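Q: Is it fine to ask for two folds in a single conversation?
A: Yes, each is treated on its own. Send the first.
Q: Here.
A: Result:
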Amino acid sequence: MAYGGGRSGGRAIRVLNVAEKPSVAKAVSGFLSKNQQGGLRVRDGRSRYNKIFEFNHTINGQPCHMSFTSVTGHLMELDFDDRFRRWHSCDPVDLYHASVRKFVPEDKSDIRRTLEEEARKCQRLILWLDCDREGENIAFEVIEVCTQANRDLNIWRARFSALIEREIQNSVQNLVRPNQLFADAVDLRQEIDLRIGASFTRFQTMFLRDAFMINLATDDRNLVISYGPSQFPTLGFVVERYWENQSHEAEEFWTINCTHNTDEGAANFKWMRGHFFDYACAAIVYEMCIQEPTVTVTEIKEQEKLKYLPLPLSTLELEKRASHFFHMSPAHTMKVAEDLYQTGFISYPRTETDRFSEKTDLQWVVVPLR
């Protein structure tokens, strides 16, 4: 679906643009304001961290006065209604059908006010959130706030995978509609996480409090035995692996290695037996090899190995390789990847794909670590 509107005889329309973070808003505004009359202007919004960038631009022949601001990640939070929020207000099982609501928290109220004020002055809204399901969900949070202030907004989505000028210019000329299904998938995941996490956290904390006679009201440690639908099973794997390591009994073994050196290089031979746990047996075989140092090659097997074109890395594979080769934690890996993305060196890192975009310049693709 293409960005509509056509030509309007040179009369500019006002367009509100919203990015997921201030640095992206600044970068995209810099690209789009290049060679534009009036240049780039900056003013403060209600939030001192989320500036508003203004410039002129033309989208598919339509002159536009662009106002570009940002949020800082999710604009809204999901929580139970007040009557279910106190721990002893209901049985933990009741949280599975208790009513929930999505709202803008107090620390994001300044951002909400900026969006409302800017939306009232604009005819169109372009969403520049990150191109994943989480970004799509944040886009619909922005839509909800903006349409409460202006129900006549014409809403569009910019899709881009890298913060480079070519990608941004192409994206603004090929706008699409936001994807409600992607946003709904995140809403569902958030609700499942909330209901399971809250109910199990309350249940096991109160159960263990009674079992071990812990007074949560007077204990200065304020003990809460939290449960996360993703984190808790992962912790189980870690504990299981720990128990395996603790129960492992180290046992000595011996192996025989053979290397043949020539002017062309060295050939290393592997013993099919692998290793001996009996030193005497290993010593006997070794002595036999020493007494008969000449070997006869009875068979040569050739095996063809193919080297395939490099594929883009999924988030999980990126974290695994960074940990293996550079000993980087997952959090540090994604922080570095995010910084590289925001400076235009790599495409958006939080994706689960192994396909390059048709627009990717493969001459600049870096071969991944093997």
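Q: Second one now.
A: Result:
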Amino acid sequence: MAKTPEEEHPIKAVGWAARDSSGVLSPFKFSRRATGEKDVRFKVLYCGICHSDLHMVKNEWGTSIYPLVPGHEIVGEVTEVGSGVKKVKVGDKVGVGCVVGACHSCENCNNDLEVYCPKMILSYGACYYDGTVTYGGYSDTMVADERYILRFPENMPLDAATPLLCAGITVYSPLKYYGLAEPGKHIGVVGLGGLGHVGVKFAKAFGAKVTVISASSSKKDEALEHLGADSFLLSSNQEQLEASLGTFDGILDTVSAVHSILPLIGLLKSHGKLITLGAPEKPLELPVFPLLTGRKMVAGSATGGMKEIQEMIDFAAEHNITADIEVIPIDYVNKAMERLAKGDVRYRFVIDIGNSLASSN
């Protein structure tokens, strides 16, 4: 007879889970594995709400396993370490991002790119090595192999640093990989949401000229005055689009809704790169001819390997980069999901797990 989530492992845990594709979350009792030799256990203090969480609780990508405890921007304080752990100690501030496992023997793993491993294991809604389902950070406690543990410097505010574990690395990694993290490059950021606003901050820290591209003129003051973008381009204004044709070295497209990428390709210089970071539910139309005539590239990027995520956190700490957040209690999470679906957040919800979720212990 199959064990219940509460009986699978020896360590009791509580969280909030979705039970079906309605996406409604409610309190949920489950369990975590005992701390292994290479494991780090930590008390969860904060967990960010990513747009992926919204897709997953509603099974919009068709891969959800219920009950589903979301959350892959998980930050807290170490409470126990295995006998073989060398990276962190009890009391350290740490985090876990989108991935908690991989094969550790393929080319990607050997190059510190665990996120691209064909056997990569997601932090929630995936099958772990032992056959049990992974549960995410909308919970009181977390355990992970030390390979997947990130360290936070003492000077970083943990709540505002939490979204860097997904949103931060999702923009940092492509800027670095595609050669756009250089002074003087002209970078466009499409969409000023959870990803876009930290994209502006990282690109500026790399010394780029940054233009926010948005369909909403209401984002202009925010982009220029608060986030420090150099210019603003209203994508619905044909005159502005035409004046900017062929002027961008690279564009980060963070939009998760179905949209046309043809105008964005037109904005690129020859050899320019359009990097898609959002994950629309339906395929986008790819116009090939403008790619040929300008030797332009449309590419994608996930998050990053563990080594690069740590590098990103350290870079963010050095340049005082954090996310703009709205901190919420756990019992507000369903309302937060509704607001996120409407784009009504500036710019990332972070759940105050430590002060609002009653601990299983």
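Q: Anything structural to flag on that second result?
A: Two points. The radius of gyration is 20 Å. The chain has a mean pLDDT of 95.
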